[in-house]
Amino acid sequence: MYCPNCGAELQNGASFCTYCGTKVAESSAEKEKQSQPVWQDNAHPDSELSDKSKLAAGLLGIFLGGLGVHNFYLGYTGKAVAQLVLGICCLGTVSGIWGLIEGIMILTGSIDCDAKGKKLRE
User: Fold this and answer.
1) End-to-end alpha-carbon separation of the chain, Å?
2) Domain spans of the chain?
């Protein structure tokens, strides 16, 4: 936590800044964030499922992975464009193997979330 007046680092729960004496009030957003479980910051809860299917993404990766279709489907647009360009330049050999591997990884559960971090449906 930092002082809004002078920017000095404060101890958690401090009411006043020890450097400039300004009263420090925690914002409601900081209080809410501190009360949230850890998993909400960096992982997906099981209750929040994607609208994307694991089976569809895996099959798209296996059969059309050389063109990055599975990554477009999951929302990984940058990676999908890279696969598409690589597929066109190399006639699909390198990106086809890449897509096949990712398709298998999706079906086995190694890749289990979409670009928004939501868990794929079974």
Assistant:
1) 41
2) 1-35, 49-121
